[in-house]
Every structure is written in structure tokens, then in C-alpha cells.
Structures
1.
Amino acid sequence: MTRLSKVEVDRKWWEIGDFFRRNSLWLLMYCTGCCAIELPPAMTSAYDMERLGMGPMATPRQADILLVSGYLSLKTLRRLIYSYEQMSEPKYVVALGSCPINGGIYHDSHAVINQLDQYIPVDVYVAGCMPNTESVMNGFVDLMEQIRNKTAVGWKKYHERFEWYKANQINSLGEIDVHDEFHE
Amino acid sequence: MTNSMNNVEFVKNLVQAEITPLGVETVDRYQVAFVVAPGDVHHLLLKLRNAGWIQLSYLSAVDWLEENKFEVVYIVFNWDLPVYIQVRAKIDRDHPVIDSVLPIYPGAKYYERECHEFFGVCFPGNPDYEKQLILEGWDDIPPLRKDFDPQAYSDRKFPQRVYTADFSVTDEQNTKLTKRQLRKQRAASLRGGVQK
């Protein structure tokens, strides 16, 4: 009997971890826009997210999925980057609606960004304005499939291309630190 | 006063006893607008507040680019008499300055900050009017002015997703569709042979 190498053992452990992880996903719902209205039917008895092992989570540090539902203004993006960097790894990002994809109906707004994946890596996009609840649920199932196939690697990409993401963030935001009068 | 048209007449008499408005417009049964000179705004608002219009519902500006004017609009509300009163005053667009109404309506604090942020109107008398409220680190002319081009700003500031001319969201190999059809056939065959 041959001993497995460390890499192989690690991979096995990751597969076991991923099995449990994908069957128990906790969402951090960052309900920025109108797509958030699709979440109540997805969570409650109509579509019952719990049967997929998913549930809402209160804090970023305990959540697996960052759910961006809708448009992101510059002000929101700052807070979103904070939340994303606070989340423990592995972490996944699901973006609902057409606004994070290409700006949607806010493509010419002075305050709304056009492309979320320039700032943080996105694993699953659910297109539509707004997507119906079936597609939202389908997006979650796709994410589970991606975790099983080891293709949900957005958080690794964020490490690899950290400089690129930071440069984009600074380019659009000017400064990532939050300065507001209620916290100073 | 149960008849609401009488209410509007009552308000018109009340205002005309104080100042001579440049124009009066009855918007509907519950709303009446007065166009006044910028110098009369504070006098009129003080009188209205003392007459019962204790709530400043909104304060904003309208940009009249062709006339080179900003029109500052105050909307006040009375909880006892169902009439909104709009007070409008046109101020110079190049030097948009009008004294704050903070001593009359303390709630104007945030409205004035918002108005300064989006239109660039200055409100001396409000100690905070220049502080940022909604936009963070804004680096251009105020965004709700008519000569501001949001599309150009968005193009300059935010990366755009580029699509090819023949872009399509459908899967070219249609792998999912074929797989789904195969699954359906398989399911049908298991149910008892409606196989095709």
C-alpha cells in the first residue's frame, strides 16, 4: 500500500470539506437593489431555500456566500469591499440582476458602477431584470455544482490578482477607506 | 373649513397679506405654489411656520439652464390644514447663494447639505452645508446640474463591459439543452416507454 503524498491528502480533505460546504451554504445578503425582492419567496415556503441547506447569516465572518442583489453605487461598493474582505475563506460571490453584469438600466448613472467583476471576483451571475425566483435558485444550484467541480475559485483569483483588483477599486473609488461623519 | 378650495383661498389671502408674490399657481386642491423674490423667502417662511405650516417637507432646487437660474423650492406642510405650500425663488446660477432657513426649520439641515451636494447651491447660516452627505469624494461639477453629462462621467470612471457585435447569451454548443433532452428521454423511457 502506497502512502498518499501531502498534495493528494490535502486534495482529499478539500473534497470532503467541499462536500459539507456545498450542502450547508450560509448567505450574507447584501440587499443593495430591487433584486432583493426575489429573496423572500426564495427563503420562505414558496421555494424553501433550506432544502438546499442554505440560510441567511448575520455577519460576514460567518457567511460563505456574498449575495449582491442589484445595483451598486460607489458608496455601497466601498462597504461591499469591506464585507468581502472580512469574510472567511473559502468565500463565493453571487450577483443577481443585470446591474452587476453591465450596469443594466443604470449604465449611464454617475453613481452606479457598471461591472462588479472588475472590483471583486464573481462566481455566479444570475441575469435578468429582475431574475425570477427559479433562476435565483438555479444560480445557487449552479454554485453548488461549481464548488463540486472546483471551479468556484473567485476567492483564489482575488489572492492571485490582488494588485489588479486593488488598482481597479482605487481607479473608480479614489479611496477605499470609509470616511463618514457617523463613525469619526 | 371643510371645503378644500376654501383652504387654498385662505392660504392665498394669508400669503398676499404678507408679501406680493411674483406668481401664484394652484397645483391642485391640496397644493398651492408661490413664486417669490429671493429676499422674501425667509420672511414668508417664518410667517407660514407661525401660521401652522410647521413641517418642511422638502427643499431642493431646479436647474433652469437657459435662463441661467436655479429655482430653490421649499415645500411646507401643515398638520391641521391639508394644504401643501410651495415657495419657489429663482437665484443666480453663477453665484447660487441663499441664506439658510435653519433658524426657521431645523430640519432643513440635511436638505441643504443635499442641495449643495447635488446642485452646488450655498446656504450660509448652515454650519454644515459644505460637508459631504451622499456622494463620497466627489470630483466633478455637482451631478444634478443640467450641464453635467452622466454618461461621459460613467464612461470615464467605470470600466464598461464590451460585447462583440454578434454577442449572444445562448450556449453555442447547446450542451445543456442536449443534456436536458437526453434526461427527459431517459425519464420517459423509465416511466414505461413513450420512447421516441
2.
Amino acid sequence: MTVRLAQNCLFAVLLAAFSGGCATENHFAAPTVLPKDDNHQSAFLRAEQTIENLFPARYCATQHAIVTVGGRQFTCDGLLEVSPTDGCHLAIVSSFGVVTDLRVNTDGGCELLKVTPLFREDWSRQFVARDLRRLFMAPANLQPAGQLADGSVVLQTPPDASGVTAQYIFSDDGARWQEMDLMQAGKIFYRATPKDFQKYPDTSAEIPGEFEVSAEAYRLELRITELTVAKEAQP
Amino acid sequence: MKLFAKHKITLGALLLAFGLNHAGAQTNAPVTLEQISVAMGRAQTVFTRFVQERHLSLFNEPLQSEGFLCFEKPGRIRWETTVPYKSILVSDGSGVAQFEWTDEKWRKLDLGLGDALQNVVSQIAGVMDGRYASDRRDYTATVTNRADEVVITLVPQNETVRKMMAAIEVHLAADLKQTRRVVLRENGGDYTDIQFSEQFVNLELPPKTFDLNAPVDIGKIRSVSANAKP
């Protein structure tokens, strides 16, 4: 009976969290992007290289995250394996075991490898896969969009089938990734801020040690606790 | 919903293991649940270091963490991770709180699962009171005597729980004075291996060890243990 009580209690909490979370919408003011001019070509090129080469081609990372949904907070760990052939493979583990396990292939497609009662399948496909794509995979088809008033360089993707555009903002010299916004119909509904850039063993570039994400249904504070560059597979 | 049943199993198995430390059983004598029940009545506090590895069948490397477990009757529990990040899950017996170390300070979370977690902690307290050992509806238990250790294998009776957690192994030193490991085996090959060291039983824990607003620093608890005999 006590077990049932605990289970029912958990179920109620999760329902409240998810339903509350789905009702939450974050909107940010879209920054004014000034048209690009020909005087900053090198900064745009540098920005493209920065995001393209940010993470090693093949690595394994462990992560720790605080997720806020509907005003309530949960913690979990992540185990991420990335390779140029297999894409991003992520398992999310809570204190209670594996929550979800998925792979985002190099073509952007999502493959759920493990579904558990602890996490809704559509959340894995919709939100976790999106975080993986946007935070840990270099975007394709980035085009120079212009600059912000403070000189920050802006690159963006063409609208996808849903009309969503990703806008990547860099320092004025293009060397440091500062922010990533997802926009639809002129409104930003997802903002990721990379923080705490640092070098990990065997990495040449400084990599974000943390990300803060504010999205339509949740807030994510993600920390990379360990990153190991994998050796190239022997032929 | 199965989440908490599993959590109960996990922490319950750990505390069951520590209770066994005081069974006083002889090396070759079979351990009975009655002995376990008696043993759990004797442990007022437990303080131990742990190293946890989660082995996921689809990954090459395990997910590792380490830290300290504190327990005090009745129902006070503190699970503190110190590496690779700092986090505290603590219950004072009446409520539960979680703290995360961010921006060089402790931050108390607005815990989403507080009520359910507290319910689970209450059940763990029941484990320490010996109710677990006398109530055999939840698990079937088998004891295996090996050359250098005793292994107790618990299999959940409930089929729903068993789908998530195939078995729990509690590895004890042959003299039952030390809990070496607890292994949580899931279906599909995943398992969690928790290894213990530096165990102290009936250590006088400092005030605020289980405080829900400002738990005492783990360094203070360790300094107390440094002057005690494991």
C-alpha cells in the first residue's frame, strides 16, 4: 500500500510538472540584426569555423543537468558519445536509472533506443533530440545574417519546413560563440547560452563547459563534467 | 510510477547491507532474515564513502560518481555526491531537500518530487526498523557463501518492479563486518555497481548533518570520522 502511495504521488507530480510545463511559454525579444557589410567578411568566416570546429569529431562526455519544468526542478546525468559516422548518442540517467536513451544521426534523424515509463517518448523526440542537435552538432547551411549593434556577428540557417530559423550569435571577431536562438514567425521560443568555455584534455578549442537553455516548456542548466576525446578507430 | 519502487529498492538494499554489518553471524553460518532484522536494530548511524558506476549496455564507458552516504535513525538520510559534481539529497525524517553546487555556492532546489521522495524515505526508515526483514512480500532472498564474501541476492516479487530491476546483489565481507558492494541489475544488461569503503557505524554525526536548509559541510562529518575507528 505504501508503495502504491509513493507511485501515485510520483505520477501526480510528473503530471503536474508536465502539464504545467507545457503551458509555459518563454519569449525573448529578438535582437535587431543590422545588415551585413563587406567589411567583416573575416569575422563571418571565423564564426563559421568556430561553430564547425567547436567540439572534437569523436568524443565521450558526461553531463549533469538541472531541469526546471512547471516551476519544479529535477536533476539527471547524461552520457554522450559522439562520432562523425553515428552522430550523437545520449543516455539520460536519474537517481532511479536510465530515463531515456536516444541517438541523433548525422542527418538529424532521431532514433529512440530506450523508452521508459520515466520519460515521455515525445519529450525525447521533441526536446532532448532538439537540445542535442542545437548544442552539440554543427549546423548545416549557416549563412551570414549581419551584426548586432555591439558588433556581434550573426549567422543563421534558412527556415526549415516549420518555418523555424536558428540564429547563432558570436563575438565581434567570430571567435567565441555567445548565443543561439530559435525563431518562428519573428518570435524566439528557444535560447541557448554557452558558458564557462574551457579546454579539456586533447581538445584544441575552448569548449562550453555549461549551457543554459530557456525553451517553451522547460529550462535546462547543463554542465559537462568530463569530456574525453576518443581515438580514431583503427582500420 | 516504477521510478520510486526502484528507488526504494536501491536505497533499501543499501541500508539492508549496512544493517547486516552487525549481525554478528559466524563466517560459515547461514545468514537468516531474522539475523538481519536484529542487526538493523543495532545500527543507529552509518557513514560511508561510495563509488558508483552505472554500466549501460549501449555505451563503452560507465557513468561514474562518488561521494558519501549518511544514515541516522529514525529515517534520516543524506546521499552526497562529491565527484564529478557536488550534490546533496537529504531527508531529516520529516521532509526532503536537494542541493546543487553552482556558482561556488549551494543552491537549494525547488524539488519536484519532494512528497514522493519523502514517502520513499519513510519506507527506508522502515527498513532500518527491521520491518523490511520481517516483511517478505517484496523480495525473495537467497544467500550465497563464497570463499571471501557472502552475497545476498534479492529478487523483487512484484512483476512490474521486476521488469525494471531484475535483482539486487549485496556483497559482504565473509565476516559480515563490511559491505563491499551493492549491484543493481536491470533487465537488458544495464547495472549499477556501488562500492563502499571507509565505513563507520554508530558514529556520532555532527549537528545539521541532515538539515534541510543548510546541511553541514561534508568536511566536518569527515573530520569526525577521522577520529573514529571504522
3.
Amino acid sequence: MELTRNITLGIYLPGDTVIHRLDPRTKIIAGAILLCLLFLIKTYTAYAVFAAFTLALILTTRIPLKFTLNGLKPMLPVLAIMWLFQLFLQKPPGANVIFSFRFLEATDAGLHMGTLMAIRVILLLLITTTLTLTTSMVALTDGMEALLRPFRKIGVPSQELAMTMVIALRFVPTLAEEMEKIIKAQSARGVAFDRGNFILRTAKVFPVFLPLFINAFKRAEELIVAMEARSYTGGAGRTKMNGLRMNRLDAAAFAALLLFSAVMLILILSVLPSL
Amino acid sequence: MPINLAGVSYTYQAGTPFEKEVLFDISLNIADGEFLGIIGPTQAGKTTLAQHCNALLIPKKGKVLVDGLNTADKKTDLVKVRQKVGYVFQNPEHQLFKTTVGEDIAFGPANQKCSKTEIERRIREAMELVGLDYYQFFCRDVFALSGGQKRRAAIAGVLACRPKVLVLDDVTAGLDPRGRETILAVIRNLHREKKITIIFISSSMDEVARLAERVVVLHRGRIVLEGGVRTVFAQVDRLKAIGLEPPQITEIMLHLNQKGIAVPLDALNLDEALEAVIAALKRAGAGAPWS
């Protein structure tokens, strides 16, 4: 019974590869651009090119591919359900029915859309996981804060926002670990989590989630006190000892990204979406 | 109901960059009615070892037999195993979730599909065993209890499942002295009166010295010392070598030895120590040094 092992989101693996050394701002912007591209593309060819790029990216980080891919595991059931929904419920006019099961009818359009959606979500997860695996939390906050700074003038609390996001990410593994402990404690009192039908299993989440939420609130309160005890007063007047600095590496990364985006845009525009 | 561990090894997060081996080839037999203490410095693998005893963890290598049932066997009903071996976590917040103490204790027996009257009986029994007054605490909000009371409520929640073996994972950590003494008295009573096998993990050598019959010392995932509580704690040098502080009584006896008063090191409590010192002084033929 190990939950922690399947959660890669929010974990940072230190390393010394090109990706690790990039300025966090570069990585965040690049990630955002890649995600935008991901939502624009609609053909299998474009997805194949994008997947190849993602794979290359993951390999450059020298993090075992298996580890990154394991992070997808908990998402697979959700993806499968979403895929089935698309498959059976998408019925645009002119779609052909591939097969039917009682009142359910699967259309070719549904199959197409479901598959594209699944690929899209998988790639999205891989990109974000790669970002968090190669960027420490400190660097991520610094990056986000720097990127949000221009919006301070219109009243966006950039520092606080960045801090909130980073704390949320930071506590994902912690909460997973805690959940594992609670599941164990309740198993020791005779809950069989892997038994019973859907409704019975759903009822079994309460003995886990209630203590988990209560602990999360307690933890948040303790964290607030600990931060304030060390004179945290929010973003106002904070300075940095090591400011962020972009260098040639970042320029090269942006050049590569630009090139890739251009290729993707050509692919998107030249091949008319089949649907 | 014996528990046998044979060549048990365990690795956390196997197959990831965080892979960590915590147990190496552990073999251990826990007999019926025994009071076993497990000690060791932090990160020694105490909790990991204990969680093998009720199939919360399944060994990666070797096997664990609980009352003859192999926990790694797919056909073994793990719920039954966990019913026989209760496990109390260090942090009661990990298991208390109902609003009142009574409801929370009822959770275990309800999972065992006990009848209403049976559940009621077990709640009363469990609360009595841990010294929580039924009328006073049954309707009390669990989150309004003190640390020691919460822990007793958590133990009651496990006892209501009627386990034959009870694993206690550092249950006195972070309690005030009075709460600690109450818990220790409860545990001693469970062992003596109810004949429950106790597996007691603790970071306090004094507690283990006072309660346990046999002690296993873990260090970096291996058993480095094992034996009767007296023999283990008398080996002060070996305990110190792995970073464990022997019980205070043993320390005092050690100091007396260094001062030239030959006393045995295996005293476990004040009374025994006193007798040993008096005997040593008599042997020396001298009057008491303080007279």
C-alpha cells in the first residue's frame, strides 16, 4: 500500500541537465506556450510531432522515463471514463455509427474526439510533470512571482499568489503520505477498501477524507503561525538575495521553442481539421 | 497466535529514483502472549517492520505468517489478518473521524458486521479497558479530547475489534507525563489481564525496559540485538554505538560500577536497582558510603 509512489506531481528531482539549469521564467513561459499549442492542434500528425517533442524533452531531463510515466497512472481511470463518454455521447450530424450496445451508439466522430482528448490530457500532464520535476519550488515561486510582477500595479498580489500556488503544490506529496497513513489506520480497523460495489466503496472514502481534511486545516493553521513567527508579512517590501537572471541558455531555449511553435503552427494551419 | 517473519526485506517506492531499502532479511518469531519491545534509532525500520505484522505492508522478499496465514498469498483474507492483529498509530488523528468517541469506537466492530447489542457491548468493554468512563465520554466530541484521551480513544477503537495481538507504534510520543503513565498502565493491563500479545515500538528506552519481556533492536533495517530485556539493556556499549541511550536506571548502575561499586547492569526499575546496590554494599562489607 504505497500511494506516494504514484504521485509525481509536485516532486522535484534535482539534476544538472540543460532543462534543470534554465531560468524558471523561461520554463514557465515555455510550458504555457506548449500548452496553448496543445489546445490548438487537432490532427494525429500534429499530435505525433508534439509527442515526439515531449519525449525528447523528458529524455533531456535524464529522469527515468518510467518514473515520469508512472505519474500518469492515477489519471488513467478518469481518462478511460472521459473517453467512453466522448465515444458514446458525441453525435454530430453526419457521424457514422461504428457499433451499438443497447441504446448506446458509438460514432466514429466520438471515437476520434475521445482519442484526441485523451492524447491531449496525457501530453498536458507530461509537460507539467516535467516542469515540476526539474524546477525546485523556490525557483518556481521566484519565476511565477517575477512573471506576475507587472500586474502588481493593477492590484494583483503577485507575491501572495505565487506563494499560495507553491504551497499547494508543495503539500501534494505530504497529503498523499498522510492519506496513506489514514488508509492504513482504517484498514487496521477492518475497512476493506478494495471490496464491495461502487456505492459501498464510495461510502468508504469518508473515514479517509474526514481526518485528511481536518489535518489539512490544522496544518494550514500551523503553517500560518510558523510563517508569521518568521516575520512573513506578504509581498510588500520583500527583496531577493539571488535575483533571477536569464542567459544564453535561455535564449537558445526560446529559439528552439520558437522554431517548434512555427512547425506546429504550419502543421495546424496546413492540414485542415478533419472534423 | 504466533507471528513468524522469515527473511523479510522491504523497499519503499521500488522502481523510482526515490527507492529506499528499509528492511534487510529480517527473521523474527513472536510467540503467543509475548510482550515484545522494538527499539532502534530513527529510520531504523521499526514502523515498517511492525506494519508487516498485520499485512499493512506485504514483504518484497521473504514471508510473514500470521497465525499460519501467509500475508503475501493472494488467497489470504487480509481483513481477517487485520482483525486478529490490531494496530495503533502514533497519531490518533490518523484514525479518529466520527464526531463522538462512542461512534468512533463503534467503527471497527461495525466493519466486522457485529449486531447492535454486540457493538454496544464492545464499546463499553473497550472504553473500560482504556479507562475512559462510558457515561462521561461516550457522547464527547473526539476533537475536544486531550492528547492522552485521544490516544486512549484510538486504542479503544482498535480494541473494539477484539484483536489477539496489538501493535503499538510509539503511542506515548508527545504526551505529558500523566497521559504517558495512564497509557502505559492500560497497555500493561491488556497484556497481563487480557493476555493480548503486545508489540511495542517506542523511542523511550525506559518505557521498554519497564514493560517488555523481550526486546529487538533494529539498526538500519537489520536486527542488531535481540533477547530478554535484561540481556539487551545490559549491553550498554552496543546500544550506545548505534546511538541509543540506555534506560536511566542502567546509566546509574553504570556510573556506580565506574565508581567501584560492583552492581549488575540488568536492573529494570528502581526497586531492583535499590536491592542490587544494597547487596553490593553488603558484599563490600563497608558501611553505606553516605553514612
4.
Amino acid sequence: MYSLNNPLKLKANKTYRLTTKEYKVLFDTHHVSLCLFCNRYLNDLEMAKDVVQEIFIKVWNQKTVFKSKHTVRSYLYTAVKNRSLDVLKSKRYKSKCDLSVEAIQSMETDSFFSSELVLQETARLVDDAVDTLPLRCKKIIKLSLLGYKNGEIANELKITLNTVKAQKKIAYRKLRFQLREHIALMAHIFLP
Amino acid sequence: MLRDFGKLMELAKRLARTILLRGRVDKMDTSQELNQDEREYIMRKLAEPSHWLERSRLKKDVDETHAKDWEKLKATTVNDSKLRYLGTVVKIAAVFAGIAGCTYFFLIGNYPKDGNDSSIKQESITLELENGSVEKLTKSDNRQFKNSKGKVVGLQNADQLDYTQGETQDGSIDDSNESKVYHKLTVPYGKTFQLVLSDGTQVQLNAGTSLKYPVRFVKGENREVFMEGEAFFDVQKKQKQPFIVNTDNLGIQVLGTQFVVSSYPEDAYINTVLLEGSVGLYKSSRKRNGEEHTILEPGFMGEWNKEEENISVKEVDTSIHTAWTKGRMVFSHMKFKDIIKKLARWYNVSITNNNAQLGEETFTATFDVKIESMEDILESFKRNYGFHYDIENNQINIY
């Protein structure tokens, strides 16, 4: 259930199971970032997709019970990490790729996990916010995030410099307006 | 062990906000969450255009298979578990049906069977024709309905019934004859249906609704229809021919506009929500003169209290009242006892609530009928408010 503004207080420590819709939302929200996150370990996107798929099946079949939105996400990322490391250490994978023991050891650290996690989540939130913009604004902001200067954006999109500036203004006004709300919303999607 | 996951998520949020609002990420204080090495690594990555380029390349790849992956996942999880459950139920049901069937055959084998007919009618969409015969409509059908002269007046195209055909084909030859010819469309609980009237007015009928309408509207006369239940009207503009929806003892008169009428017999109110244009509400026993009208403006809802026979007008979020036309249910500060009435219609189940306190509790929630099962929804409510329920066939009891 996706509550707009629930007048009821959530009872402390209540656990809950995912409904079909929540499961779909969970998949839609995290599928891409989990695949990319997994790819940081495996460096093989197709294999990463398989691992993520496997984890999602597990979440459903175990009917894993979660205590909060953080535990859902934390479970997903941790499970993907563990499975990835298992794959890396498996004999079959070892024979195919020549990863040094040190490389695997560095991936096993909490530091690696935390850094990649923060990078993925940051990028996901940025993408989600930019995706809500009108098409033209979106194109301009995407280029701008890639480090393009206004003049370069104008060239690339074959529009005038003034249009770029005007569109950027609109975009930032929209972003500023909805950012707080938007990000808060994304965060609360699993809080009934 | 891992550090606080929530803290890292908060950090990601702060970073995203700073990036989007052109702030300096490297000026942020991250000493709480990260050590020096991690900070340097993350800041470097975020500042590198190549990091974002590489990400968008990979993201595109995953986006392309995203839908397919979901279908695959759904097949092995959601669908599978439902199917397995259904399988058992069907098997058990089959055994019962077998036993019951044999008993029936041996005990009352030659008893005339007519008891089933009404239950079949209940479950299907029906169209009552001018001669009183009742046709069953199946959503996958494409059918033609003809008048007494054999001319096609209505065309069924899957879940839509269209009467504009007759209007365009010929002139005014049959006008006088067909003016008194009415059809009545009835949509049972658990289903919806679309209708296009002869003037091009579109009507979407919600679950548990019936609408009686003339096969053709006559030029120069009011366009009048009769309904019970809930429907969304997008009325074709005709300056000189007001469109009137009669329901219970309320009349709703419009010229050309979009609005929703909800008038279920079990509800205490008839609600009219206006999206566009203007509508007038009046008590149908009175003459339709200007003085008796209550005029609605777009974005407002007229609430007709059936018992007190008066109308109150208030501003509403129209999207809540039209959500059902898109297969969604939105409840905004609605009492549980009213929510279960709607759920019962949508899912064609009967719900008995034995928990009086719960009935008065208000909830705000959105559901998608295509994705969520009745049980999913009950579970959602249960999580918010601890109660028990059991399901037996189509009967749900809440304690």
C-alpha cells in the first residue's frame, strides 16, 4: 500500500510482508541500481543481471519479513554483494577471469561496499529527479551533469544559448520545488 | 559489521540534492559517514564526467531488458505462487463439484433446473433491449445490435459499446420511431464497461452500475439517461440540447462537460464531481427551472444527502474521484466502513466487518486493481491496523 499521508501511526517494530505491488515497486526502483552495483563486483553486466534476478526471487520465495524501508534496501544490497563475492570466488569464474587475491580482498571490505552503495544511490536519486523534468529540460540537464558548458549544450542540441539558459532556469526551479518532496516520497514508499 | 545503512542512504540523498541544485559536493561535510579514502574516491567519481557517461551507458542496457526481466521474475514468483494456490483450490473445488454433482444426479436427477440463471446474470455484463430481452455481453466479443427494422444501431467492440454508427449512417427517417427506444446496460460488481452514446457522449461505467439510455437522441429534445451506480461522463457539447442524468431523485443537467456521478443505493449520498464545464443539480420532483438549480464549478463536488434531500457543495481533488476510470482506487481520509463498500464492488466479494471501531477509522491509500489482489489490500490494511479476517469463497469476515 502506498499511503499518501497516513493518519495512523505505524506501530513500532511491526514487521510486514511485501504485497505484489510493493514487490513491483521494489523491482522498478532498485533493479537498475542493483545491476550496476553488482557489475562493480563482477564487471560483467549480463552476469550481474542474473545475480540480481536470483536475489529478487529469493526475496519473494522466502517471503522475507522486513522491519522498515532501510532493511529492505539493506537486504537487497547486502545479498547482491554476498552473492557476487561467492561468484567471484567460485572455481568456474576463477578459471575464466584472472582476478588477483588482493583485488577480491579489497572488494570484500566494508569500505568498497559503502562507497559503491553511496555512489549508486546518489546516481539513482539524481536520475529519478531528472526524469521528472519535461523532455527539453531533461536533455539540457543531463548534458550539464556530464560537464557540458552552456555553449556546448547549445551546439549539441542545435538550440540558441538563450534557450539553454532559459530552460536551465525552468529546470532548476522545478527541481528545487519538487526535490525535497520527491526525495522524501521515494524514501517513504515502503513505510505504510 | 556494516555501518549504519540508514546514514549512508541519508548521505546519498544529501549528495543528490547538492548535485541537482548545482552545489559544491566537495564542500559537504561527510566526516560522520565516510573516512578520508572513501570520501576522496566518491568525490572523484562524482566529479568525473566519464563516471556518469559509463553509468548512463550501462543503465541504458539494463533499462532495455528491465520490462522483460520483470516478466520473467513475475512468472517465477508472483504468478507461480498464485497459480499453485489456485491449483489446489480448483482441485478441491472439482472434487466437491464432483460429489455435489453426483448427489444431485442421483437424488434429484430430473428436477427442473432454473435456479442457476439469476446467478449467471449477476456475473456478466448485460444489455436489455427494447423488446425486454436480455443479452449477455462478453468482453472479448465484437457484436452488432439491430433495431426492429434490422438496422445496426449499436456496435460492440470488446469492452466498448458504440451507438454513433446509427447516427451517421442515415438522416432523419427513423427519428420518430427510435426516440422511445431504450437500451439498458448493466455492469456487475468486479467489472467496468465503456459506452459511446449516439451523440458521441462517452460514458465509463464503474462496477455495479446500470444505465438506461435512448438508442438515439432526438434532435431538439433533452438528452436524458437514467443511472444507478457510478459513471464518468464526457458529454458532447450541444448548446440547445441539455444532457440530463437522472439518478434516484436527483437530476443532473449539463450542456457539454466532464463529470463523475456516484449514486449507489447503499450509499447515503449521491456525489457529482465536475472536471470541466458546468452542471446544475436539482431535485427531480421539482421543475427544471433555473431557481432550483445548484450550479457546480469545475473542481467541486455536489453532495446530495438522500435522507435530508439537500445539497452541499465542496471543493475536492477530482483525480481521487476519477482514479477508478484508470483502474485505480484512491481513498482519501475515508472511513473503513465506506472503503469496504467500494472494495466489495470492485472485487465482487461481500465483506462483513464485525469490528465497529475499525469501521470508523479513516484511511488514506491508493491501490491498483490490476496489480493488487483483494488479499494484498486486506494485508495492507492489517499492517496499519491490527485486525483479523478470514476468507471463505466470496465472503470476507473482518474481526
